[in-house]
Amino acid sequence: MSEREFDIVLMGATGFTGRLVAEHLVRRHGVGGQLKWALAGRSREKLEKIRIELGETAAGLPLIVADSHDRGSLDEMVNRTRVVCTTVGPYALHGSDLVAACAANGTDYCDLSGEVPWMRRMLDQHGDAAAKSGARIVHCCGFDSIPSDMGVWFLQREAQERLGQSLERVRMRVKAAKGGLSGGTYASMLNIVEEARRDKEVARVLKNPYALCPPDAREGERQPYVSSALYDPVFEVWTAPFVMAAINTRVVFKANALSGFSYGREFRYDEAVMTGRGFSGRMKATMVSLGMGAFALGAALGPTRALLKKMVLPKPGEGPSAEAREAGFFKIVIDGRNDGGDQSLRVAVSGDRDPGYGSTSKMLGETALALALDLGADERPGGMWTPSTALGEKLLKRLREHAGLKFEVLEG
C-alpha cells in the first residue's frame, strides 16, 4: 500500500457507539501524534459538534465528509487512509458501498457487523477484489464476535502447547453478563428477519452454520445447537439459547476453515447461556427460552415487528450512561475436549465494561489499531478474515493491555 494521509478513518463517529470508539482513540493516542486519524460522516455540522464534545485534545482532529451511499465520496475517503473503521449500521442498509470501495482500493476495513446474510454477500461479491488489491476485510469486531472467535483461538493455541493437539468438541457458555445489546444490534436483527421473509436464499444462508466459510468449505459436520432449555452434563448446569450464537458460531467455523482446519475437520462448536443448577436453573432456562421464542415470533410478524421498532427496543444512536457502561461486564467460559474424552482444557474470557457499548467500542478500536500499526502488508494477504485469523497474537496483546479483556486458562 502506498503512503496515505491517515492510519485510521473512523466512519460513523456521530453515532453513539462511534463516539465511544472516538473517545477511546483520543484517550489512547490523542490527536496530532504518531497515530494519524480522522473522523468521517455525512454531516460536517455533526462532526464538528462531536469534535468539540471530545474535548480540547481533539481540537485539531481532521474531519472528512463522506456519504455511505455516495460511492465517489467513499472512494476518495478510503484512498486517504490505511484502515477504515465503521460503526454505520445496519450494514445491509448502509455498508455495502464502503466494503466495495475498500476492497477495490486496497484499504483495510473493520466493523461491528453481525449480519450473516450481508457478510456472505460481501464475501461473494468482493472477496476476489479484496484478495487482488490486498485489502484485509474484518467483520464482527465487537462483542459479536471477538470473545468467541478469539476465545476459541486462544483455547486451541493453549491446547496445542499443553496437550499437543487441537480439541474437536468445544462449548462456549456465557457465565455472567451485565449490560444489554446495542440498539444497532437489535436494528440489524430485525432487518435480517425482514430480509429472510422476502428472500428464501437469505433464509437458507441463515440456516447454514458454514455460511461464512470459503465456497469450498460450506458443508461439514452436523453441528449441535442449543435451541431450548437444556441440561449440560459437561458444565453440570442448565442452559438456555444465547442470542448471539447464530452469529458467533458462523465466525468460529469460518476461522477454522481459513486456518486450514487447524481446529479439526470434525470440529463441533455451540454456544449457550448458563442459568444455574437444580430446579431454579431449569426454570430460568425455560423462561429465557420462552422469552427468546416470543421475541423471534414478534420479529417475524409485521405489526409486532413495527411495535418493537417503535416502542420496545433501544434505537440506533441511543445507549446507556457512562456509569451504566462502566458497571457492566461479561464472562464466558469455553470448554474443549478431544473425541476420546481423555484430553480437555477450559479457558475464560471476560470484559470490564457492558458488552454492547463499553467493551465493544474498545474491541473495535483496538482491532483498527492492530490493522493500522501491527499488521504488515506481507503478513496477511487481502481477503475476508475473522479477527483471530487476521490478527491473532497481535490482537490478543492489545485486547489484554488496552481493551479490558482477560484471556486465562482455568486450572482444575
Task: Report on the architecture of this protein.
This protein is an alpha/beta fold. The protein folds into two domains: 6-143 and 358-400, NAD(P)-binding Rossmann-like Domain (Rossmann fold), CATH 3.40.50; 146-356, no CATH class. The protein has 15 helices and 14 strands. It has a seven-stranded parallel sheet with strand order 3-2-1-4-5-6-13, with helices on both faces. A seven-stranded mixed sheet has the order 8-9-10-7-11-12-14. Helix 1 packs across helix 14 (355-374), helix 3 crosses helix 5 (96-105) and helix 8 crosses helix 9 (200-207). The mean pLDDT is 92. It comes from Wenzhouxiangella sediminis. Residues 8-137 form the Saccharopine dehydrogenase NADP binding domain. This is Saccharopine dehydrogenase. One of its GO terms (cellular component) is plasma membrane. Belongs to the saccharopine dehydrogenase family. Enoyl reductase subfamily.
